[in-house]
Amino acid sequence: MGIEEKLPAGFVLTTLEQAAGYMRKSSIWPATFGLACCAIEMMAVGTPDYDIARFGMERFSATPRQADLMIVAGRVSQKMAPVVRQVYDQMPNPKWVISMGVCASSGGMFNNYAIVQGVDHIVPVDVYLPGCPPRPEMLLNAILELHQQVQHSKLGVNRVAAARAAEAAALRATPTHEMKGLLA
Amino acid sequence: MADQTNGPDSGKGGFLSDLFAPVGGFGVTFATMFRKVETEEYPEEKRPTQPRYHGRHQLNRHPDGLEKCVGCELCAWACPADAIFVEGADNTADARFSPGERYGRVYQINYLRCIFCGLCIEACPTRALTMTNFYELADDNRADLIFTKEQLLAPLLEGMLPPPHPMVDGMEERDYYQGKVTSSTPEQEAWVRAREDEPQDGLAPTGDPVIGVDTVADGRQATRDTTEAVRR
Predict the structure, then answer these.
(1) Given 2.60.410.10, 2.170.190.11, 3.30.70.3270, 3.30.1380.10, which CATH number is that of B57-231?
(2) Is B78 helix (H, G, I), strand (E, B) or coil?
(3) Statement: residue B40 has pLDDT above 70
(4) Are B169 and B187 within 8 A, CB to CB?
(5) Which end of chain B is less congested by CB atoms within 10 angstroms, N or C?
(6) Which of B116, B139, B143 sits opposite A131 (nearest CB)?
(7) Cβ–Cβ pairs < 8 A, chains A and B
(8) What does the pLDDT read at residue A78?
(9) Dist CA B87 CA B74 (whole Å)
């Protein structure tokens, strides 16, 4: 994409990674994606009382094409699942997903045929946030958790290596649909 | 009619107010800088929750360190989201974790299912399970959000000994619930000392009762104050 693709792995690239990570994490724009009651708490985070703009999230983007972060707030029904995936696909890279609330994270108390048992069946999730619904502080905490991940994200050859390692780990891991017990 | 000849712009205001009128609105912005900030400065200054806030669970202990959980599974039955998994086991003379017959050998709460409704707390017959005011639970994978018994158990306070150890001499299960046990005894301490070096079977929590996700260093553990608050 840019100069970072040309750089060899080493001091210059890691310095660039840190700078890029700092800038990315302090200017994440979330997509407006409320699905249920969690969206009310997500809106509360936007109010002056909690003021998400303190973290560089100046506004909730109404189009996925200008968003970096999808906060899946609420239960994802089977019917909504393709829409979630399409919104995710329309977001430009780099992009992140916070699964807000127990319903989005695992289906929560709705263990039935209508609800997707965790949005990670559809899109890769970076931060899981429990709570029903999570209080605004919990969402801010999840965002700070995400900041840690963004700050340490890789670029160029390091990114390719990290992606290879992640894929190898994912292939070794038990698929979500085969998980038993409380993980299902 | 006279008003019309004057017009809205001429008249009342002098030269200066006319000059500053276009930027007068910025005065509001400027004055706001000196007002009290109403925004919660979350990571630095946390606004305390309500005292009975439904936060992370805690498995309480008797004053001598034995666990209150008797492994009855009522919490798991009450849970509307099926978030709790309990497996009881029998206390033996060698390994006693709670007063009475049984204890909870496996205790897991899936925080990606738990809706913090508190029905488990209402169902608990021994008040073994209560809730803390701790809410910072976000994590990056599902497996780590299943909290196990070691993570949920209350920290050992003053006068408590890590189970397994026998009940206080001369006391029976009923006395624990009548508040007759106030602290561990030297006999119990000697019993624990004698078996300290042996490898222990089962889930004996040792020195640091909260291993794994929440450590004091991370500032992610329920504080001792909140632990005190939920203890009854």
Answers:
(1) 3.30.70.3270
(2) helix
(3) yes
(4) yes
(5) N
(6) B116
(7) 102
(8) 92
(9) 11
